[in-house]
Design brief:
Chain lengths: 262, 246
């Protein structure tokens, strides 16, 4: 229907984006009826998302002609942005932004670098940036989940934690169970993605490869490769961020700093 | 109740804690003698629990300090300090598992193993013989508080801080816990600081009483001096019941 109205690919794209956004906003309005307020968060995210992706898409046209090393700077910029966005899930924890940025940089950076060195990711900008950004984005989501869960668990169990501290336990010992639970829960989406690959979803990357003429079997295998890389980087990010955030939740005198406000 | 008297084991020196513009604990200086049970009483919001939390450095003072046996507690390693100055809170916060696992927790942090005989001895002491293998989820409120006391005692502290240990309990259970505390005071060399809003409880258990109001220490003295009626901080019309004294 839309293709008969919009003949230009760009205007067609914007029309499709508008419909998808309306659907997303309708869900938010439904949530509002249950007193769950995500309107401003979602509206801002939708607007930012479309503007940012259009800007990046436009920039890619220029980047295609740029030398390969510019990918490093673009990916580094993505990591910094990812750290900042992800840190908001760990409200009231000082150092969350630093922890998020370092964890995502280490998790996504190590996996991307190793896989590029091994020849799994092509160094061409058209490969490195899309695949690298997928790895960074998923590391960002996992980090946000892990920190949000850790924060919630610590707040909900402040009494138990301080009881353990009062009995002479080391801080990391008092939150060990909550750290494990946060890591485990944060990796559920990545693990389920791998588990459902090909059954529940066929990712866009594979579709893109097929459209560009790649061998279907190779496209399928490479899709698995990407999802496995995402799991590796997400896992590393989650492990690092929960390990690092512990030192910000306790003072040097082993006092719990993260508590509900009075 | 009479203390054996003796050296000062714990001393606060202009101890304060300020959060923003709020002086939660405001320049409190007092001493606690070894073997004494010092009561800290006052209305809700007086800063009693906040004061107690400063004594084992669960919260950091913003002014002043605490001396444990003459040594500034900031020079004592925090975990070691908290072994020596134990705490029992209003809610027991028992760890999942059985009673024995809870008692073993404190010593295990130092790499020590509590023998079965020691666990049995602690449980006898708090009036819970044979409870070692009981799951804490199946305990009553009074039993949980007794386990919480035994857990703190397993660390062999020198001072025990009690933060309203009976306020969530019914009268009969409260009486049982008070008897237990009394036995511990009389029987051992332990020093106690008890926060309570129950003036009658303070009269029954304490050697001396400190009255706090709005974060400040307004009165400190023996039970007779401070709680014999008409003292600052008491509710108008408060009746004094002469309970059995030790």
């Amino acid at each position: 229907m839309l293709k008969s109205i919009f003949h230009s690919q760009i205007t067609l794209g914007f029309a499709q984006a508008a419909i998808a956004s309306v659907l997303a906003l309708l869900v938010i309005l439904l949530a509002r009826r249950r007193n769950i307020h995500l309107e401003s968060d979602t509206a801002i995210a939708l607007l930012r998302g479309i503007v940012q992706i259009v800007v990046v898409g436009s920039a890619l046209v220029l980047l295609l002609k740029a030398p390969r090393w510019t990918s490093v700077f673009l990916l580094a910029g993505m990591i910094v942005a990812a750290g900042s966005i992800s840190a908001r899930r760990a409200k009231n924890i000082p150092g969350a932004r630093k922890v998020s940025t370092y964890s995502i940089a280490a998790g996504a950076g190590v996996v991307t670098a190793v896989m590029t060195w091994a020849g799994v990711i092509d160094t061409a900008i058209t490969s490195l940036i899309p695949v690298g950004s997928m790895i960074i984005a998923n590391a960002m989501n996992t980090n946000g989940l892990a920190l949000n869960l850790f924060r919630s668990e610590v707040l909900a169990h402040a009494g138990e934690i301080e009881t353990a501290l009062a009995l002479g336990a080391a801080p990391e010992r008092t939150v060990a169970g909550y750290t494990e639970a946060s890591i485990h829960s944060s990796l559920i989406p990545a693990i389920d993605n791998l588990r459902s690959l090909g059954i529940v979803w066929i990712p866009g990357l594979m579709t893109g490869m097929l459209l560009s003429g790649a061998d279907p079997l190779y496209a399928a295998i490479y899709q698995f490769v990407v999802i496995a890389m995402i799991l590796a980087s997400s896992g590393l990010t989650s492990l690092l961020s929960t390990m690092m955030i512990r030192s910000y939740v306790f003072s040097p005198a082993d006092q719990l700093l993260l508590k509900e406000s009075a | 109740m009479n203390a054996d008297g003796g050296a000062v084991i714990l001393r606060t020196d202009n101890l304060s804690r300020r959060v923003g513009e709020l002086h939660i604990v405001d320049n409190i200086s007092l001493s606690v003698e070894r073997g004494e049970l010092l009561g800290v009483v006052g209305p809700s919001g007086a800063g009693k629990s906040s004061f107690l939390r400063l004594l084992n450095r669960l919260d950091e003072p913003t002014g002043g300090t605490v001396f444990l046996e003459g040594l500034d507690y900031r020079q004592i390693e925090p975990r070691g300090l908290r072994r020596r100055v134990g705490m029992v809170t209003q809610r027991p916060f028992l760890f999942l598992g059985d009673v024995a696992a809870n008692l073993r927790f404190g010593p295990a942090q130092r790499g020590e193993t509590l023998a079965d005989a020691e666990i049995a001895g602690l449980l006898d002491r708090v009036g819970l013989p044979g409870f070692a293998t009981r799951n804490v989820a199946n305990l009553s409120g009074g039993e949980q508080q007794r386990v919480s006391l035994a857990r703190a005692l397993a660390n062999r502290p020198e001072v025990l801080l009690l933060d309203e240990p009976t306020s969530a309990l019914d009268e009969k259970t409260k009486t049982g816990i008070e008897e237990l505390i009394r036995d511990l005071v009389v029987g051992g060399r332990l020093t106690f600081v008890l926060v309570t809003h129950d003036l009658d409880q303070a009269r029954r258990l304490c050697h001396r009483v400190a009255i706090m109001e709005a974060g400040r220490l307004v009165q400190l003295g023996t039970v007779q001096e401070v709680l014999s009626g008409g003292s600052a901080g008491l509710q108008p019309g408060d009746t004094v019941h002469e309970k059995e004294r030790l």
